[in-house]
């Protein structure tokens, strides 16, 4: 395991989605960052970045939330989040909405680990068969490339298996899954087939929103495959 | 349910369509990636393509006047059409002036957009499609479902059966592509040699020289643009390129993006008329039909940069499952979702900006870098502001949720209520009709992250390893 020489004070941007529905991803992120020598702070005034409103056409309703994000995180040293989708919204869309975030850099977790802490082997151990779904916003909006995969490859005991057509959307897309439920399910059906073909025990990703979508279908089918955020795997130790 | 969701539901139920589409889009997607990977300067070419189009749009009136001047000087006639009806009338009048009972056509989306064939039929003029796929659509009284491969939803058995019913009556064509194509070839050859007038679209119109370019794969376009006495080209005003050298960029971007070819088999470029060689009369009809309206929208206008390669359709996870008919427009797929509502009016196609998961695959492949996801989000905003009622249930819910998120107190109260199954957060993600058809909803965990953090802070348990991250008690998604 390599450690960053300098202690970094990280402001955790948990996202409303993880805070409310997937706290384990947040707890794992904290455990991981602290293990790597970061000091983690949680600013309890944070709520939602405004992505759902902004992407659904309710920009006016999203703007105050973007302003709020600016007030909460403006004076942080660095902001890190276990959600590529929300980071993408802050970085790519705040400017377009006329509310650019002028504070510190905002990183998605895998970017922060690989680019800032310069670590790929985080000292994790996870002796399971795992497949990675590279989420659309992580690879296309943020361009995280193979960072999540490099981090996972360094995990002790992991059997990381490739997902067919991995770059194709799972069909979540926020309100898309509700407004165009039939099309969303057709996309999800193919993603599910590819996940099951890997015979993995765990399907992982850097966004819990996609995992909720994929995991919800796996649970319905009683497929015996569970979904975990990448942070949960990287935080796991013997 | 209406608009795209309803039409998509219908299309998704067609198993044959799903198979045909899945097979075809996957094949071309893989081929395109290979053709693009051959060029080390692909990204630079895309940048150049985007810059050329941006310049053309920024100087559109000037470029169109240059084009008009050059075409006129080269012996052509330029017509300006405000809308489809004007354009149809111009083409119809030219045909009638020459006593043409039939016209042959090069594949053209612009003519489909304005319903030229139907308008000519009302004047007693038969328009004959000469592109193989367009011919299949026309003979089957079918609808196009793809920009480049309009009959992508049909397989060869269906096409052979169609020909045996129409242009190859009494013959057994079998399933060999060669024999099926031969039937079309025989049918079309006679038309090329006898019909006095052709109608084409334009891939590009070069302002500097007054040249029109049509690219194609089958050679039918070359026949149409050289054999008849009269040639009429209908060109959307956004197809103008300022300079001749711009073709160097576009003719690399287009074939690799559309058919995954290094170069398309036929590139026909002509400038006005030349005595004794080719058509002796050339008309260029410049079509607006809503385009200047699109140009007025600073974000949406990049939809006009489209060179109709269809790469965005082939990579789109929505299009590749629903097919083109679900978009209820000549322009399907991601580009259609941003072009149709702008050309026809947001109130005519209000569901199209939502016909996307915003995955971004379209933007990644677009040869002129149209940021389709951003335009989709922008158009969603315009639909909400300009079309939706101020009191729509969705808007009321969204406003309420925004209020919740604007205060820590309200947000934390909503989290507590959600655990009890109440309040605005418990109702996410919206009306659940579709969600639980094939997906479980996650259980709301007993403790939020912030509650855990507060507890940890209070007990001073900041030591790493204090939790077992693999312990997902309370999760509903099964265990290995």
Word description of this protein:
- The complex is a heterodimer of chains A (238) and B (480).
- By secondary structure, chain A is an alpha/beta fold.
- Chain A folds into 2 domains: 9-116, Rossmann fold; 129-235, Rossmann fold (3-Layer(aba) Sandwich).
- Chain A has 12 helices and 8 strands.
- In chain A, strands 2-1-3-4 form a 4-stranded parallel β-sheet, with helices on both faces.
- In chain A, helix 5 (84-93) runs parallel beside helix 7.
- Chain A is globular.
- Chain B is an alpha/beta fold and 480 residues long.
- Chain B has a domain at 61-289: Rossmann fold, CATH 3.40.50.10420.
- In chain B, 48% of the residues lie in helices and 10% in strands.
- In chain B, strand 5 and strand 6 (211-216) form a beta hairpin.
Brief summary of the model shown:
The complex is a heterodimer of chains A (238) and B (480). Chain A has helices spanning 16-21, 23-35, 51-55, 59-73, 84-93, 109-116, 136-142, 147-153, 176-179, 181-197, 208-220, 230-235, and strands spanning 9-12, 39-41, 78-81, 106-108, 129-132, 159-161, 202-205, 226-229.
Q: Layout of helices and strands, plus pairs?
A:
The complex is a heterodimer of chains A (238) and B (480).
Chain A: E1 9-12, H1 16-21, H2 23-35, E2 39-41, H3 51-55, H4 59-73, E3 78-81, H5 84-93, E4 106-108, H6 109-116, E5 129-132, H7 136-142, H8 147-153, E6 159-161, H9 176-179, H10 181-197, E7 202-205, H11 208-220, E8 226-229, H12 230-235
Parallel strand pairs in A: 1-2, 1-3, 3-4, 5-6, 5-7, 7-8
Chain B: H1 4-12, H2 15-37, H3 42-58, H4 60-73, E1 77-81, H5 84-97, E2 102-105, H6 109-113, H7 116-122, E3 126-129, H8 132-139, H9 156-165, H10 177-194, E4 197-200, E5 204-206, E6 211-216, H11 220-226, E7 230-236, E8 240-241, H12 246-258, E9 266-271, E10 281-287, H13 291-295, H14 311-315, H15 319-322, H16 333-344, H17 361-365, H18 372-386, H19 393-405, H20 408-419, H21 423-426, H22 449-459
Parallel strand pairs in B: 1-10, 2-3, 2-4, 4-7, 5-8, 7-10
Antiparallel strand pairs in B: 5-6, 6-9
Helix pairs in contact in B: 3-12, 9-10, 16-18
